[in-house]
Each structure stands twice: as C-alpha cells, then as structure tokens.
Amino acid sequence: QVQLVESGGGLVQAGGSLTLSCAASGIIFSTATIGWYRQIPGKQRGLVARITTRGVTDYADSVKGRFTISRDNAKDTGYLQMNILKPEDTALYYCNAKIQTSSGTRDYWGQGTQVTVSS
User: Fold this and answer.
1) Is CB count within 10 Å lower at the N or C end of the chain?
2) How far is Cα of residue 8 from the mean position of the Cα atoms in its chain?
3) Segment 13-64, tens digit of pLDDT
4) Contact between 70 and 79 (Cβ < 8 Å)
C-alpha cells in the first residue's frame, strides 16, 4: 500500500519559513519524481516545485528564489523549504509521487498539510 505523509505545515508570519516533509512508503522512492502542489478553495491544484529522479528541479515562477525542493532517497523523504513566506502562499500543500512504469505513469498523492501565512 502506497502512502505519502506530509508534515511541517502550520501558521507563520509573513517573512517566516517552514519546511514541509513528505515521507513515502510502498514505493521505490528513488524511481519517483516528487512534486509539491498547492490548492486554495475554489481554485485548481497547481504545481509549486518538483524534483526528478536525477535531481533536476523545476519551480513555479511565484516561488522561485524563495522555495527549495530536495529529496533524501535513503530516507524515502522529500522536502520543501519555504522562505520569505507571503500571505499568498497560504494553501493546502500536497506531495505527489510520479512513477513511470511499462504501462504508463502512476500518480500518488498525500492528504495535504495546511500552510497559513499571516500578514
């Protein structure tokens, strides 16, 4: 059974920092592209950052220079370091694992962790 468990969300003042973690089980973590997405009520879930199996990273323009995605394959865990947080970063943050198989791409999601940034 695949599980992605996010942690590290919370309430922080604008300008502050948080680090989100995504602990995976039931998958070969090193074979997954790990992504962080966020969603606010009434809006579509959008990509924040992702890191490939080779460590190539990609960020949404709105977080470039402030957020850093990383992974520790030995711990089956992905991270999102968020600095200089802004009220507009307030959202439910989800971890995603994408694995390429011979029959296509498999997507796995965590349940989300809430990040709230106060002004």
Assistant:
1) N
2) 11
3) 999 999 999 999 999 999 999 999 999 999 999 999 999 999 999 999 999 9
4) yes
